[in-house]
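Kindly review both lines to help learners:
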Amino acid sequence: MGGFNTRVEYGGETFIVQTQDKGLGARYVESLIYRSGRLLASKRASYAAFAAEPDLADRIERMMGEQHKAILGQIVEGRFV
């Protein structure tokens, strides 16, 4: 499964947000937030509670998209400046 990688310019700074599934061994989705090449923060969301569900791939894809979108929104709200 792929992930998301978005570059955002805000407040004269360059932010990069990378979100990916860390796999069934880890059972979480992770987003990394960089500003000007330096790691600012990370966010993890577990999917262990529904790892055995038949629609797991769809749920993970939705989780990644929602988490990624939320972080991009936080950037443009000025949370990471």
In short: The CA atoms of residues 40 and 49 lie 28 Å apart. The chain has a mean pLDDT of 95. The chain has one domain: 3-76.
